[in-house]
TrEMBL record:
Compartments reported by the entry: Mitochondrion matrix
Keywords linked to the UniProt accession: Mitochondrion, Transit peptide
UniProt key word Mitochondrion: yes
InterPro entries: Metalloenz_LuxS/M16 (IPR011249), MPP/UQCRC_Complex (IPR050361), Pept_M16_N (IPR011765), Pept_M16_Zn_BS (IPR001431), Peptidase_M16_C (IPR007863)
PROSITE patterns from the UniProt entry: INSULINASE
Source taxonomy: Eukaryota, Metazoa, Chordata, Craniata, Vertebrata
Organism of provenance: Bos mutus grunniens
GO molecular function (one): metal ion binding
Gene: PMPCA
Peptidase M16 N-terminal domain location: 77-226
The protein's name in its UniProt record: Mitochondrial-processing peptidase subunit alpha
Amino acid sequence: MAAMVLAATRLLRGSGSWGRSRPRFGDPAYRRFSSGGAYPNIPLSSPLPGVPKPVFATVDGQEKFETKVTTLDNGLRVASQNKFGQFCTVGILINSGSRYEAKYLSGIAHFLEKLAFSSTERFDSKDEILLTLEKHGGICDCQTSRDTTMYAVSADSKGLDTVVGLLADVVLHPRLTDEEIEMARMAVQFELEDLNMRPDPEPLLTEMVHEAAYRENTVGLHRFCPAENVRKMDRDVLHAYLRNYYTPDRMVLAGVGVEHAQLVECARKYLLGTCPAWGTGAAVHVDRSVAQYTGGIVKLERDMSNVSLGPTPFPELTHIMIGLESCSFLEGDFIPFAVLNMMMGGGGSFSAGGPGKGMFTRLYLNVLNRHHWMYNATSYHHSYEDTGLLCIHASADPRQVRLGCFPPGPGATGSAGTLVLPLSCRCEKWWKSSRGVCFNGWDCGRGEYICGAGWWRLRHGAASSGLCSVPTPAASQPGQHSPQAGP
Protein backbone atom coordinates (compact mmCIF):
# COMPACT_ATOMS: atom_id res chain seq x y z
CA MET A 1 0.00 0.00 0.00
CA ALA A 2 2.82 2.41 0.87
CA ALA A 3 4.51 1.70 -2.45
CA MET A 4 1.29 2.46 -4.35
CA VAL A 5 0.87 5.79 -2.54
CA LEU A 6 4.49 6.73 -3.28
CA ALA A 7 4.08 5.87 -6.95
CA ALA A 8 0.88 7.89 -7.26
CA THR A 9 2.50 10.88 -5.57
CA ARG A 10 5.43 10.80 -7.98
CA LEU A 11 3.06 10.64 -10.95
CA LEU A 12 1.08 13.66 -9.70
CA ARG A 13 4.28 15.64 -9.25
CA GLY A 14 5.37 14.89 -12.79
CA SER A 15 8.04 12.31 -12.12
CA GLY A 16 8.43 9.91 -15.05
CA SER A 17 10.67 7.31 -13.39
CA TRP A 18 10.94 5.25 -10.26
CA GLY A 19 14.49 6.34 -9.68
CA ARG A 20 15.80 9.75 -8.90
CA SER A 21 13.22 12.44 -9.79
CA ARG A 22 13.98 15.50 -11.94
CA PRO A 23 14.45 18.87 -10.22
CA ARG A 24 11.09 20.37 -9.52
CA PHE A 25 11.98 23.82 -10.87
CA GLY A 26 13.99 22.75 -13.88
CA ASP A 27 17.68 23.14 -14.65
CA PRO A 28 19.31 25.90 -12.56
CA ALA A 29 21.25 26.99 -15.67
CA TYR A 30 18.09 28.49 -17.14
CA ARG A 31 17.04 30.49 -14.07
CA ARG A 32 16.98 34.31 -14.39
CA PHE A 33 17.24 36.90 -11.67
CA SER A 34 15.65 40.35 -11.66
CA SER A 35 18.91 42.06 -10.71
CA GLY A 36 20.77 41.23 -13.89
CA GLY A 37 18.17 41.40 -16.60
CA ALA A 38 17.45 43.41 -19.71
CA TYR A 39 17.79 46.94 -18.21
CA PRO A 40 21.14 46.91 -16.37
CA ASN A 41 22.26 50.56 -16.70
CA ILE A 42 19.05 52.64 -16.81
CA PRO A 43 18.73 55.03 -13.82
CA LEU A 44 15.52 55.17 -11.84
CA SER A 45 14.92 58.74 -13.00
CA SER A 46 14.56 57.64 -16.66
CA PRO A 47 11.59 55.77 -18.15
CA LEU A 48 12.10 52.20 -19.28
CA PRO A 49 12.07 51.68 -23.07
CA GLY A 50 9.02 49.93 -24.42
CA VAL A 51 6.93 50.65 -21.32
CA PRO A 52 3.75 52.75 -21.91
CA LYS A 53 3.82 56.23 -20.41
CA PRO A 54 1.59 56.39 -17.31
CA VAL A 55 -1.38 58.73 -17.34
CA PHE A 56 -1.82 60.67 -14.11
CA ALA A 57 -4.88 62.50 -12.82
CA THR A 58 -4.90 66.22 -13.49
CA VAL A 59 -6.86 69.21 -12.20
CA ASP A 60 -8.46 70.86 -15.20
CA GLY A 61 -10.59 73.36 -13.32
CA GLN A 62 -13.84 71.69 -14.29
CA GLU A 63 -16.06 70.54 -11.45
CA LYS A 64 -17.88 67.29 -11.83
CA PHE A 65 -20.36 68.47 -9.19
CA GLU A 66 -21.22 72.10 -9.82
CA THR A 67 -22.32 74.22 -6.88
CA LYS A 68 -25.40 76.25 -7.76
CA VAL A 69 -26.27 79.33 -5.71
CA THR A 70 -29.52 81.30 -5.73
CA THR A 71 -30.29 84.39 -3.62
CA LEU A 72 -33.90 84.90 -2.53
CA ASP A 73 -35.62 88.27 -2.19
CA ASN A 74 -34.99 88.42 1.57
CA GLY A 75 -31.23 87.88 1.15
CA LEU A 76 -31.13 84.19 2.08
CA ARG A 77 -28.83 82.17 -0.17
CA VAL A 78 -29.60 78.65 -1.39
CA ALA A 79 -26.64 76.46 -2.41
CA SER A 80 -26.70 72.87 -3.63
CA GLN A 81 -24.65 70.13 -5.23
CA ASN A 82 -26.46 67.25 -6.85
CA LYS A 83 -24.93 63.87 -6.11
CA PHE A 84 -26.03 60.37 -6.99
CA GLY A 85 -27.58 58.54 -4.06
CA GLN A 86 -30.76 57.93 -2.13
CA PHE A 87 -29.93 60.15 0.85
CA CYS A 88 -29.20 63.85 1.11
CA THR A 89 -27.74 66.26 3.66
CA VAL A 90 -29.53 69.59 4.08
CA GLY A 91 -28.83 72.28 6.63
CA ILE A 92 -29.08 75.94 7.53
CA LEU A 93 -25.76 77.61 8.21
CA ILE A 94 -25.84 80.93 10.07
CA ASN A 95 -23.13 83.55 10.39
CA SER A 96 -23.27 83.67 14.19
CA GLY A 97 -21.24 82.35 17.08
CA SER A 98 -19.24 83.26 20.14
CA ARG A 99 -17.21 85.94 18.33
CA TYR A 100 -20.36 88.09 18.10
CA GLU A 101 -21.13 88.03 21.84
CA ALA A 102 -19.09 91.08 22.88
CA LYS A 103 -22.28 93.07 23.66
CA TYR A 104 -24.19 90.11 25.08
CA LEU A 105 -23.81 87.55 27.83
CA SER A 106 -20.95 85.25 26.96
CA GLY A 107 -22.18 81.72 26.21
CA ILE A 108 -25.37 82.40 24.23
CA ALA A 109 -24.21 80.33 21.25
CA HIS A 110 -23.37 77.48 23.62
CA PHE A 111 -26.90 77.60 25.03
CA LEU A 112 -28.52 77.73 21.58
CA GLU A 113 -26.62 74.58 20.64
CA LYS A 114 -28.16 72.73 23.59
CA LEU A 115 -31.64 74.13 22.83
CA ALA A 116 -31.60 73.10 19.16
CA PHE A 117 -34.30 70.74 17.84
CA SER A 118 -36.51 71.30 20.88
CA SER A 119 -40.21 72.21 20.76
CA THR A 120 -41.39 74.62 18.05
CA GLU A 121 -44.68 76.03 16.76
CA ARG A 122 -45.38 72.86 14.76
CA PHE A 123 -43.72 70.27 17.01
CA ASP A 124 -44.61 69.95 20.68
CA SER A 125 -41.41 68.19 21.73
CA LYS A 126 -38.04 66.95 20.58
CA ASP A 127 -39.43 63.40 20.48
CA GLU A 128 -41.99 64.48 17.88
CA ILE A 129 -39.21 65.94 15.74
CA LEU A 130 -37.20 62.72 15.95
CA LEU A 131 -40.26 60.62 15.08
CA THR A 132 -40.87 62.80 12.02
CA LEU A 133 -37.28 62.34 10.87
CA GLU A 134 -37.43 58.62 11.59
CA LYS A 135 -40.09 58.21 8.88
CA HIS A 136 -37.47 59.31 6.35
CA GLY A 137 -34.51 57.56 7.98
CA GLY A 138 -33.14 60.90 9.10
CA ILE A 139 -30.84 62.18 11.83
CA CYS A 140 -30.32 65.75 13.02
CA ASP A 141 -27.52 67.72 14.63
CA CYS A 142 -26.61 71.24 15.69
CA GLN A 143 -23.07 72.52 16.13
CA THR A 144 -21.74 75.94 16.98
CA SER A 145 -18.25 77.33 16.51
CA ARG A 146 -16.75 80.76 17.03
CA ASP A 147 -18.21 82.19 13.84
CA THR A 148 -20.75 79.64 12.57
CA THR A 149 -23.94 77.94 13.76
CA MET A 150 -25.14 74.90 11.85
CA TYR A 151 -28.48 73.07 11.91
CA ALA A 152 -28.32 69.99 9.68
CA VAL A 153 -30.37 66.92 8.79
CA SER A 154 -29.44 63.83 6.77
CA ALA A 155 -32.44 61.92 5.43
CA ASP A 156 -33.98 60.24 2.40
CA SER A 157 -34.13 62.57 -0.59
CA LYS A 158 -37.86 61.91 -0.98
CA GLY A 159 -38.49 63.72 2.31
CA LEU A 160 -36.78 66.96 1.25
CA ASP A 161 -39.92 69.07 1.70
CA THR A 162 -40.44 67.74 5.23
CA VAL A 163 -36.78 68.26 6.11
CA VAL A 164 -36.64 71.89 4.95
CA GLY A 165 -39.91 72.69 6.71
CA LEU A 166 -38.60 71.13 9.91
CA LEU A 167 -35.32 73.06 9.70
CA ALA A 168 -37.13 76.34 9.12
CA ASP A 169 -39.37 75.72 12.13
CA VAL A 170 -36.43 74.76 14.37
CA VAL A 171 -34.38 77.84 13.42
CA LEU A 172 -37.11 80.51 13.24
CA HIS A 173 -39.85 79.32 15.60
CA PRO A 174 -38.35 77.73 18.74
CA ARG A 175 -40.54 77.97 21.83
CA LEU A 176 -37.67 78.22 24.33
CA THR A 177 -39.82 77.22 27.28
CA ASP A 178 -38.64 77.59 30.87
CA GLU A 179 -38.34 73.83 31.19
CA GLU A 180 -36.16 73.57 28.09
CA ILE A 181 -33.93 76.43 29.25
CA GLU A 182 -33.50 74.74 32.64
CA MET A 183 -32.55 71.49 30.90
CA ALA A 184 -30.04 73.44 28.80
CA ARG A 185 -28.56 74.94 31.99
CA MET A 186 -28.02 71.46 33.38
CA ALA A 187 -26.46 70.25 30.11
CA VAL A 188 -24.11 73.24 29.95
CA GLN A 189 -23.13 72.85 33.62
CA PHE A 190 -22.36 69.18 33.10
CA GLU A 191 -20.28 69.95 30.01
CA LEU A 192 -18.25 72.55 31.90
CA GLU A 193 -17.56 70.10 34.73
CA ASP A 194 -16.62 67.39 32.24
CA LEU A 195 -14.35 69.82 30.40
CA ASN A 196 -12.33 70.44 33.56
CA MET A 197 -12.09 66.77 34.55
CA ARG A 198 -11.50 64.92 31.30
CA PRO A 199 -7.94 63.61 30.79
CA ASP A 200 -7.87 64.92 27.20
CA PRO A 201 -7.22 68.68 27.50
CA GLU A 202 -7.51 69.48 23.77
CA PRO A 203 -10.86 71.38 23.94
CA LEU A 204 -9.65 73.42 26.90
CA LEU A 205 -6.29 74.12 25.25
CA THR A 206 -8.03 75.27 22.08
CA GLU A 207 -10.13 77.67 24.15
CA MET A 208 -7.05 78.99 25.93
CA VAL A 209 -4.87 79.40 22.84
CA HIS A 210 -7.57 81.55 21.22
CA GLU A 211 -7.80 83.59 24.40
CA ALA A 212 -4.04 84.14 24.33
CA ALA A 213 -3.86 84.93 20.61
CA TYR A 214 -6.84 87.33 20.47
CA ARG A 215 -7.14 89.05 23.82
CA GLU A 216 -10.80 89.87 24.53
CA ASN A 217 -11.79 90.37 20.90
CA THR A 218 -13.73 88.39 18.26
CA VAL A 219 -12.49 84.78 18.12
CA GLY A 220 -10.70 85.26 21.45
CA LEU A 221 -14.02 85.43 23.30
CA HIS A 222 -15.18 82.38 25.25
CA ARG A 223 -16.77 79.67 23.14
CA PHE A 224 -18.08 77.84 26.21
CA CYS A 225 -20.49 79.54 28.56
CA PRO A 226 -18.73 80.78 31.73
CA ALA A 227 -20.05 79.19 34.92
CA GLU A 228 -21.19 82.56 36.30
CA ASN A 229 -23.47 83.13 33.26
CA VAL A 230 -25.31 79.79 33.38
CA ARG A 231 -28.08 81.05 35.69
CA LYS A 232 -28.36 84.39 33.86
CA MET A 233 -29.58 82.93 30.58
CA ASP A 234 -33.29 83.35 29.91
CA ARG A 235 -35.66 83.72 26.97
CA ASP A 236 -35.31 87.51 26.71
CA VAL A 237 -31.51 87.34 26.52
CA LEU A 238 -31.65 84.67 23.82
CA HIS A 239 -34.29 86.54 21.79
CA ALA A 240 -32.22 89.75 21.88
CA TYR A 241 -29.32 87.88 20.31
CA LEU A 242 -31.47 85.96 17.80
CA ARG A 243 -33.16 89.16 16.64
CA ASN A 244 -29.83 90.57 15.45
CA TYR A 245 -28.02 87.52 14.11
CA TYR A 246 -30.66 85.03 12.96
CA THR A 247 -31.64 87.15 9.94
CA PRO A 248 -32.11 85.82 6.37
CA ASP A 249 -29.15 87.78 4.95
CA ARG A 250 -26.85 85.91 7.39
CA MET A 251 -28.21 82.45 6.48
CA VAL A 252 -27.43 79.84 3.83
CA LEU A 253 -29.67 76.87 3.07
CA ALA A 254 -27.31 74.26 1.64
CA GLY A 255 -27.93 70.75 0.37
CA VAL A 256 -25.94 67.89 -1.14
CA GLY A 257 -27.69 65.17 -3.11
CA VAL A 258 -30.73 67.30 -4.03
CA GLU A 259 -31.99 69.06 -7.14
CA HIS A 260 -31.31 72.78 -6.96
CA ALA A 261 -34.70 73.84 -8.31
CA GLN A 262 -36.48 71.65 -5.77
CA LEU A 263 -34.40 73.07 -2.90
CA VAL A 264 -35.10 76.65 -4.02
CA GLU A 265 -38.82 75.89 -4.17
CA CYS A 266 -38.75 74.53 -0.60
CA ALA A 267 -36.78 77.58 0.57
CA ARG A 268 -39.35 79.96 -0.90
CA LYS A 269 -42.13 77.94 0.71
CA TYR A 270 -40.75 77.83 4.26
CA LEU A 271 -38.09 80.58 4.57
CA LEU A 272 -39.44 83.47 2.52
CA GLY A 273 -41.85 85.91 4.11
CA THR A 274 -42.07 84.09 7.44
CA CYS A 275 -42.09 85.94 10.76
CA PRO A 276 -39.69 84.50 13.38
CA ALA A 277 -40.67 83.93 17.00
CA TRP A 278 -38.72 86.99 18.19
CA GLY A 279 -40.45 89.36 15.78
CA THR A 280 -39.35 91.24 12.70
CA GLY A 281 -37.19 94.31 12.42
CA ALA A 282 -33.80 95.39 11.16
CA ALA A 283 -30.73 94.23 13.07
CA VAL A 284 -29.23 97.18 14.93
CA HIS A 285 -26.48 95.67 17.09
CA VAL A 286 -24.50 93.53 14.64
CA ASP A 287 -20.83 93.28 15.59
CA ARG A 288 -18.62 93.77 12.52
CA SER A 289 -15.28 93.87 14.36
CA VAL A 290 -12.19 92.49 12.63
CA ALA A 291 -10.03 90.01 14.55
CA GLN A 292 -6.92 91.59 16.08
CA TYR A 293 -4.05 89.17 16.74
CA THR A 294 -2.23 90.12 19.94
CA GLY A 295 -0.26 87.09 21.09
CA GLY A 296 0.38 86.25 24.71
CA ILE A 297 0.45 83.42 27.19
CA VAL A 298 -2.23 81.74 29.31
CA LYS A 299 -1.41 79.22 32.04
CA LEU A 300 -3.59 76.91 34.11
CA GLU A 301 -2.59 74.51 36.87
CA ARG A 302 -4.77 71.47 37.59
CA ASP A 303 -4.55 68.40 39.79
CA MET A 304 -5.41 65.31 37.70
CA SER A 305 -4.45 62.75 40.34
CA ASN A 306 -8.05 62.02 41.36
CA VAL A 307 -9.89 61.83 38.02
CA SER A 308 -8.95 58.27 37.06
CA LEU A 309 -11.86 55.82 36.94
CA GLY A 310 -9.65 52.87 37.88
CA PRO A 311 -6.88 52.03 40.32
CA THR A 312 -4.17 53.21 37.91
CA PRO A 313 -3.80 57.01 38.01
CA PHE A 314 -3.38 59.10 34.90
CA PRO A 315 0.19 60.18 34.15
CA GLU A 316 1.09 63.64 35.40
CA LEU A 317 1.72 65.53 32.17
CA THR A 318 2.33 69.09 31.10
CA HIS A 319 0.38 70.12 28.01
CA ILE A 320 1.61 72.98 25.83
CA MET A 321 -0.06 74.43 22.75
CA ILE A 322 1.86 76.93 20.62
CA GLY A 323 -0.08 79.08 18.16
CA LEU A 324 1.02 81.13 15.15
CA GLU A 325 -1.21 83.47 13.20
CA SER A 326 -2.01 82.06 9.76
CA CYS A 327 -4.59 83.32 7.26
CA SER A 328 -8.34 83.36 6.73
CA PHE A 329 -10.07 80.84 4.50
CA LEU A 330 -10.73 83.62 1.97
CA GLU A 331 -7.01 84.18 1.27
CA GLY A 332 -4.90 82.41 -1.31
CA ASP A 333 -2.60 80.85 1.29
CA PHE A 334 -5.44 78.97 2.98
CA ILE A 335 -4.77 75.82 0.93
CA PRO A 336 -0.99 75.83 1.69
CA PHE A 337 -1.75 76.12 5.40
CA ALA A 338 -4.29 73.28 5.17
CA VAL A 339 -1.73 71.07 3.41
CA LEU A 340 0.94 72.01 5.95
CA ASN A 341 -1.39 71.03 8.78
CA MET A 342 -2.07 67.69 7.09
CA MET A 343 1.63 67.01 6.56
CA MET A 344 2.53 67.96 10.14
CA GLY A 345 -0.21 65.62 11.38
CA GLY A 346 0.82 63.93 14.56
CA GLY A 347 -1.11 62.17 17.28
CA GLY A 348 -0.66 60.46 20.61
CA SER A 349 0.65 57.17 21.93
CA PHE A 350 -2.79 55.87 21.00
CA SER A 351 -4.99 57.66 18.47
CA ALA A 352 -8.62 56.87 17.73
CA GLY A 353 -9.08 55.00 14.47
CA GLY A 354 -6.49 52.30 15.01
CA PRO A 355 -2.73 52.08 15.56
CA GLY A 356 -0.52 53.60 12.88
CA LYS A 357 -2.82 56.40 11.76
CA GLY A 358 -0.69 59.34 10.66
CA MET A 359 2.57 57.57 11.49
CA PHE A 360 4.40 59.06 8.49
CA THR A 361 3.54 62.69 9.26
CA ARG A 362 6.28 65.11 10.30
CA LEU A 363 5.40 65.23 13.99
CA TYR A 364 5.32 61.43 14.21
CA LEU A 365 8.65 60.98 12.42
CA ASN A 366 10.56 63.89 13.95
CA VAL A 367 9.06 64.12 17.44
CA LEU A 368 7.17 61.06 18.68
CA ASN A 369 9.53 58.51 17.12
CA ARG A 370 12.67 60.29 18.35
CA HIS A 371 11.63 61.29 21.86
CA HIS A 372 10.18 58.42 23.88
CA TRP A 373 9.02 60.77 26.63
CA MET A 374 6.62 62.60 24.30
CA TYR A 375 3.03 61.47 24.87
CA ASN A 376 1.39 63.63 22.23
CA ALA A 377 2.33 65.94 19.36
CA THR A 378 -0.49 67.11 17.12
CA SER A 379 -0.99 69.94 14.65
CA TYR A 380 -4.25 71.93 14.34
CA HIS A 381 -5.34 74.68 11.97
CA HIS A 382 -8.23 77.00 12.85
CA SER A 383 -9.35 79.30 10.05
CA TYR A 384 -11.94 82.07 10.14
CA GLU A 385 -13.30 84.82 7.91
CA ASP A 386 -10.58 87.35 8.77
CA THR A 387 -7.79 85.42 10.50
CA GLY A 388 -6.42 81.98 11.29
CA LEU A 389 -4.36 80.12 13.87
CA LEU A 390 -1.89 77.28 13.28
CA CYS A 391 -1.27 75.35 16.52
CA ILE A 392 0.93 72.52 17.74
CA HIS A 393 -0.12 70.63 20.86
CA ALA A 394 2.50 68.68 22.85
CA SER A 395 2.23 66.56 26.02
CA ALA A 396 5.15 65.34 28.08
CA ASP A 397 6.35 64.76 31.61
CA PRO A 398 6.87 68.08 33.44
CA ARG A 399 10.57 67.30 33.78
CA GLN A 400 10.95 67.04 30.00
CA VAL A 401 9.26 70.27 28.94
CA ARG A 402 11.22 72.08 26.26
CA LEU A 403 10.21 74.28 23.36
CA GLY A 404 12.91 72.95 21.06
CA CYS A 405 11.30 69.54 20.56
CA PHE A 406 9.36 70.55 17.45
CA PRO A 407 10.79 70.12 13.95
CA PRO A 408 11.77 73.34 12.15
CA GLY A 409 9.77 74.84 9.34
CA PRO A 410 11.80 73.37 6.44
CA GLY A 411 10.88 69.89 7.67
CA ALA A 412 7.37 70.55 6.48
CA THR A 413 7.86 73.22 3.86
CA GLY A 414 10.68 71.54 1.99
CA SER A 415 8.31 69.31 0.04
CA ALA A 416 7.62 70.72 -3.38
CA GLY A 417 5.33 69.29 -6.00
CA THR A 418 1.60 69.04 -6.37
CA LEU A 419 -0.80 67.73 -3.74
CA VAL A 420 -4.47 67.20 -4.56
CA LEU A 421 -7.14 67.49 -1.85
CA PRO A 422 -10.35 65.80 -3.04
CA LEU A 423 -13.59 65.93 -1.07
CA SER A 424 -15.60 62.73 -1.21
CA CYS A 425 -17.80 62.61 1.89
CA ARG A 426 -21.27 64.03 1.32
CA CYS A 427 -21.40 65.76 4.72
CA GLU A 428 -17.88 67.17 4.25
CA LYS A 429 -18.89 68.45 0.81
CA TRP A 430 -21.99 70.04 2.31
CA TRP A 431 -19.98 71.75 5.07
CA LYS A 432 -17.34 73.06 2.68
CA SER A 433 -19.80 74.41 0.13
CA SER A 434 -22.20 76.01 2.60
CA ARG A 435 -19.44 77.66 4.65
CA GLY A 436 -17.85 79.05 1.49
CA VAL A 437 -21.17 80.47 0.30
CA CYS A 438 -21.99 81.89 3.75
CA PHE A 439 -18.79 83.93 4.07
CA ASN A 440 -17.69 84.44 0.47
CA GLY A 441 -20.75 84.04 -1.74
CA TRP A 442 -19.12 81.30 -3.82
CA ASP A 443 -17.76 77.78 -3.53
CA CYS A 444 -14.02 77.38 -4.05
CA GLY A 445 -14.18 74.08 -5.92
CA ARG A 446 -13.85 70.36 -5.43
CA GLY A 447 -10.14 69.91 -6.15
CA GLU A 448 -7.49 72.30 -4.87
CA TYR A 449 -3.75 72.04 -5.44
CA ILE A 450 -0.61 73.76 -4.24
CA CYS A 451 2.84 74.02 -5.79
CA GLY A 452 6.24 74.77 -4.31
CA ALA A 453 5.81 78.56 -4.46
CA GLY A 454 2.98 78.34 -1.94
CA TRP A 455 5.31 76.73 0.60
CA TRP A 456 7.66 79.73 0.54
CA ARG A 457 4.87 82.25 1.05
CA LEU A 458 3.55 80.13 3.92
CA ARG A 459 6.98 79.64 5.50
CA HIS A 460 7.93 83.32 5.56
CA GLY A 461 4.43 84.39 6.63
CA ALA A 462 4.32 82.00 9.58
CA ALA A 463 7.90 82.77 10.60
CA SER A 464 7.14 86.49 10.92
CA SER A 465 3.95 85.90 12.94
CA GLY A 466 3.78 86.60 16.64
CA LEU A 467 3.83 83.69 19.08
CA CYS A 468 1.22 82.69 21.61
CA SER A 469 1.83 79.81 23.99
CA VAL A 470 -0.49 77.96 26.33
CA PRO A 471 1.27 75.72 28.85
CA THR A 472 -1.11 73.78 31.07
CA PRO A 473 0.72 71.85 33.77
CA ALA A 474 -1.59 69.14 35.05
CA ALA A 475 0.29 68.69 38.30
CA SER A 476 3.34 70.93 38.26
CA GLN A 477 6.18 70.50 40.68
CA PRO A 478 7.66 73.25 42.87
CA GLY A 479 10.13 75.36 41.00
CA GLN A 480 8.92 74.21 37.60
CA HIS A 481 9.58 76.75 34.87
CA SER A 482 7.11 77.24 32.03
CA PRO A 483 8.44 78.64 28.73
CA GLN A 484 7.45 82.23 28.19
CA ALA A 485 6.39 83.83 24.93
CA GLY A 486 5.49 87.40 24.25
CA PRO A 487 3.29 89.05 21.69
